[in-house]
Specification:
The complex is a heterodimer. Chain A is an alpha+beta fold. Helix content of chain A is 24%, strand content 32%. In chain A, α2 (93-103) packs across α3 (108-121) and α2 (93-103) runs parallel beside α4. By secondary structure, chain B is mainly alpha-helical. Chain B has a domain at 64-235: MetI-like (MetI-like fold, Orthogonal Bundle), CATH 1.10.3720.10. Helices cover 73% and strands 0% of the residues of chain B. Chain B has helices at residues 5-33, 54-62, 65-96, 102-112, 117-135, 143-168, 172-179, 184-213, 216-221, 229-234, 244-264, 266-273. The two termini of chain B are 14 Å apart. In chain B, 31% of the residues are buried. Classes of the chains: A alpha+beta, B mainly alpha. Chain A binds chain B through residues 13, 51-53, 72-74, 76, 78-80, 82-85, 88-90, 99-100, 103-104, 144, 147, 151, 157, and chain B through 98, 170, 172-173, 175-183, 186, 190-191, 194-195.
Chain lengths: 373, 279
C-alpha cells in the first residue's frame, strides 16, 4: 500500500529544533524504503508517527489514500519490528506469534494454522514450544518478524531490527527480510543508521539529517550522485575524501578548484553550476574507490607517500599523505603498497563531486552522472 | 564467579552473628509462649518443661484473639488490595508519561513515607469526627476508615516500587502490542502486568507486613469493633505486670502468617526484589 506523508512536523518539549520538520514523502506500494541517517535525525520519529506511537504536531499521514493521522496504532493495519524488543517474555514462541491474532478474535483452528504457516516462513517452526529463555537473539528477532507478518499488514515498519545482532546474523537476517519483502509484495519502511544495510536492502533510500530529508533516491543515486555534502559524507564506507577550496576560472573558459596544497581542473559538467561562482568557497570530494594510483605525475594528479594500510580482504584501504592532506584510497590487495612507498594519486574528473560551501548543495547540473561499470 | 574461601568464612561469621542477635530473643520469647504460667518468669529460666497450648487457648478464645486476627486480615488485606488497585496504574503512568509536575508528585509521594504516623493519625481522627458529625459518615472504628488511612503509607510504597519495575521494561513491549491490535490498557493487562507479576507480589508482601504490624494509627482510629492483633498485644502489658506467656503467644500469632506468606511466595519475592538478577 502506498504511504504518503504530507508536511509532517513533530516537536518534542525538551528541544527547540523540530525532530521532524515539514516532511513530505511518498513510499509506493510494494517498495522497500529505507530511512537512513545518524541518530537524532528524525528517522525513528517518522517511523513511529506512521505506526501511531507518536502524534504529529501537524501534517497528514495516509496509507493507500486512507487518512490515518488520528487513528490509534491498532487500527492502522501496520506491523512493527523493534530494535530493543522482540518477544513477550511471559509467552512461548507459539503464543507470541498467536498474540496479534487473539486481538481480532480469530478461531482457534485458524490461529493454529496461521501460526504454523508463518513460523515456517521464517524458519522457526521447530521452536514453537520454546520459551523466551531458550531462543537466541537471532531467533527472537525471527519471532518478532513472524508476529509482524501474522496479521498480513499492509505496511511493515522496521526500527533498526538488526542493530543488536552480531555481524554474521545481521547479514543473514537482512537477506531474509529482503526475501520476505519479495515474497509478500508488501510495503516496507526500514529505519537504520547503517548505510551498508540501507544500500543492500533498499529500493529507495531516504537520507535524513536534523529532521529534514536530504535526498531521496535509489542506492546508486545516493551513492554516485549525492545532492549535498551531507549525503556525500554519510553514505559510503570508507567515507568520501572531502576538502574545502575555492573556484577559479582558467584561461580556456574552464574552471579550476584551488585546494589546500594542490589544484585541480574541473570537468565540463560543473560549468553551468559554476557560472558566477568564481572566487567562492566550495567543497570538493572524491570517493576512495574512484582515486587511481598512477605511475607518473600528470593532469589532476598529486604525489605523496603511503602512511597507513588497512586490509579489507580482497582490497586494501590505504591512506596517502599528499600535498599535506590525507587521502583514503581503495586498491586491490595485490596492487597494495607498503607504508612509506611513494605514489601518485589521480582524480578522474568523471567521479569528482563538488558542493557549494555555504549551502552544501551539489554544483553538478546534469544529475545523475554516469555510473561507473 | 568463585568467592575466595576466606571471604566466604567471613560472610558466614557475620551472618551467624546477625542471626543470633535477631533470632535469640524471638526464640526465647516463642519458647515462653509454650510455657505454663507458673514458669513464665522463673529465675533461672526453665529450659526443660512440658510444652502447653494453654496460653494460645487463653488469648485466642478467652480473650477473643480470633476476632482480632480476622480484623487484622481484613484491614491488611483490604489495604493492600486498595493500594495495588490504585497504585499500580498510577505507577505505570509515572513510569511511561511525563505530565505536568510528575516529578514533583513523585517526590511528594516519597515525602509521605517520612511523616511520623502521629502527624497523620490525629488529623485523620479529626476529619473522621467532622465527617461523622457533619455528614453522618462514620469512619471511626470501621474497616474502611482504617483502610483509607493506611493508604497514606501504602500508596507511596506501591507507586515507588512498581514504577521501578515498569521503568525497567522497554516501552517497545507495550508499543508492540498496541501496533498488534490492542489498546494501551489491553497491552498493560495482557503483556506488562504478567511480566511485572513478581514485582507486584514483592510489593504486596512488603505492604502487607507494614499494615499487619501497624500499631499506632490503629490505636487512634480503631475501636472495639476493629481492634487489630498488635493492639491486643498491648493489652497484655498492664500496670502491675506483664503477662509474658500470653504476650508471646499473641506475638507468635502475629508473626506466623507473615512467615508462612513469605515462605510460600519466596521465589516471587526474591525475583521481585532483585529484578530477577539472582536467577
Amino acid at each position: 500500500m502506498k504511504v504518503a506523508l504530507t508536511n509532517l512536523v513533530k516537536r518534542f518539549a525538551n528541544s527547540d529544533r523540530a525532530a521532524v520538520n515539514e516532511l513530505n514523502l511518498v513510499i509506493n506500494e510494494g517498495e522497500l524504503a529505507v530511512l537512513l541517517g545518524p541518530s537524532g535525525c528524525g528517522k525513528t520519529t517518522t517511523l513511529r508517527m506512521i505506526a501511531g506511537l507518536e502524534q504529529p504536531d501537524s501534517g497528514r499521514i495516509a496509507i493507500a489514500e486512507r487518512d490515518i493521522t488520528d487513528l490509534a496504532p491498532k487500527d492502522r493495519r501496520v506491523a512493527m519490528v523493534f530494535q530493543n524488543f522482540s518477544m513477550y517474555p511471559t509467552m512461548n514462541v507459539y503464543d507470541n506469534i498467536a498474540f496479534p491474532l487473539h486481538a481480532v478474535k480469530m478461531k482457534r483452528g485458524e490461529i493454529d494454522r496461521t501460526v504454523r504457516e508463518v513460523a515456517a516462513l521464517v524458519n522457526i517452526d521447530h521452536l514453537l514450544e520454546r520459551s523466551v529463555r531458550q531462543v537466541s537473539g537471532g531467533e527472537a528477532q525471527r519471532v518478532a518478524l513472524a508476529r509482524a507478518m501474522v496479521r498480513r499488514p499492509e505496511v511493515f515498519l522496521m526500527d533498526e531490527p538488526l542493530s543488536n545482532l552480531d555481524a554474521k546474523l545481521r547479514a543473514q537476517l537482512r537477506t531474509e527480510i529482503k526475501r520476505l519483502h519479495q515474497d509478500t509484495g508488501a510495503t516496507f519502511v526500514f529505519v537504520t543508521h547503517d548505510q551498508e544495510e540501507a544500500m543492500t536492502l533498499g529500493d529507495k533510500i531516504i537520507v535524513m539529517n536534523k529532521g529534514d530529508i536530504q535526498q531521496v533516491g535509489s542506492p546508486h543515486e545516493v551513492f554516485f550522485a549525492p545532492q549535498n555534502a551531507f549525503v556525500a559524507s554519510f553514505v559510503g564506507t570508507p567515507s568520501m575524501n572531502m576538502f574545502e577550496g575555492m573556484v577559479s576560472a582558467d584561461d580556456t573558459a574552464g574552471y579550476r578548484v584551488l585546494l589546500p596544497g594542490f589544484e585541480l581542473t574541473l570537468p565540463a559538467r560543473f560549468h553551468n553550476g559554476l557560472a558566477k561562482m568564481t572566487g567562492n568557497r566550495v567543497i570538493w570530494g572524491i570517493r576512495p574507490e574512484a582515486v587511481r594510483l598512477v605511475a607518473a605525475p600528470g593532469e589532476n594528479t598529486v604525489g605523496g607517500e603511503v602512511e597507513l594500510v588497512e586490509a579489507l580482504g580482497s582490497r586494501d584501504l590505504i591512506f596517502v599523505r599528499a600535498a599535506e592532506q590525507l587521502f583514503g584510497v581503495i586498491v586491490d590487495a595485490q596492487a597494495s603498497l607498503a607504508v612509506g612507498a611513494p605514489c601518485h594519486l589521480h582524480f578522474p574528473g568523471a567521479q569528482m563531486h563538488l558542493f557549494a560551501a555555504d549551502s552544501e548543495r551539489s554544483l553538478q547540473n546534469n544529475l545523475p552522472p554516469s555510473v561507473p561499470p | 564467579m568463585r568467592v575466595p574461601t576466606s571471604e566466604r568464612i567471613l560472610a558466614y561469621v557475620i551472618l551467624i552473628v546477625m542471626a543470633i542477635l535477631v533470632l535469640v530473643p524471638v526464640l526465647a520469647g516463642s519458647i515462653t509462649a509454650f510455657k505454663p504460667q507458673i514458669i513464665w518468669v522463673s529465675s533461672p529460666p526453665t529450659w526443660i518443661f512440658e510444652p502447653t497450648l494453654e496460653n494460645f487457648e487463653f488469648v485466642f478464645f478467652t480473650r477473643k484473639g480470633w476476632v482480632y486476627l480476622r480484623n487484622s486480615l481484613i484491614i491488611s488485606g483490604g489495604s493492600v488490595a486498595v493500594a495495588l488497585i490504585l497504585g499500580v496504574p498510577a505507577a505505570y503512568a509515572f513510569a511511561r508519561f511525563r505530565f505536568r509536575s510528575s516529578k514533583a508528585l513523585m517526590q511528594w509521594l516519597i515525602s509521605l513515607r517520612m511523616i511520623p504516623p502521629i502527624v497523620v493519625g490525629l488529623p485523620f481522627y479529626a476529619m473522621f469526627l467532622y465527617l461523622e458529625r457533619g455528614l453522618g459518615i462514620g469512619l471511626r472504628d470501621t474497616f474502611p476508615g482504617l483502610i483509607i488511612t493506611y493508604q497514606t503509607f501504602l500508596l507511596p510504597l506501591v507507586i515507588w516500587m512498581m514504577r521501578g519495575y515498569f521503568a525497567e521494561l522497554p516501552a517497545a513491549m507495550e508499543e508492540s502490542a498496541m501496533v498488534e491490535g490492542y489498546t494501551r490498557l489491553g497491552a498493560l493487562w495482557r503483556v506488562v502486568l504478567p511480566v511485572v507479576f513478581p514485582g507486584i507480589v514483592a510489593t504486596a508482601i512488603l505492604n502487607f507486613i507494614f499494615a499487619w504490624n501497624e500499631f499506632f494509627l490503629a490505636l487512634i482510629l480503631a475501636g472495639n469493633r476493629t481492634s487489630t492483633l498488635p493492639m491486643t498485644a498491648g493489652t497484655y502489658i498492664v500496670r502491675t505486670r506483664v503477662e509474658w506467656g500470653n504476650l508471646f503467644a499473641v506475638n507468635l500469632i502475629i508473626m506466623v502468617p507473615v512467615i508462612v506468606l513469605t515462605i510460600i511466595l519466596r521465589r516471587q519475592l526474591v525475583k521481585g526484589l532483585t529484578f530477577g538478577i539472582l536467577e
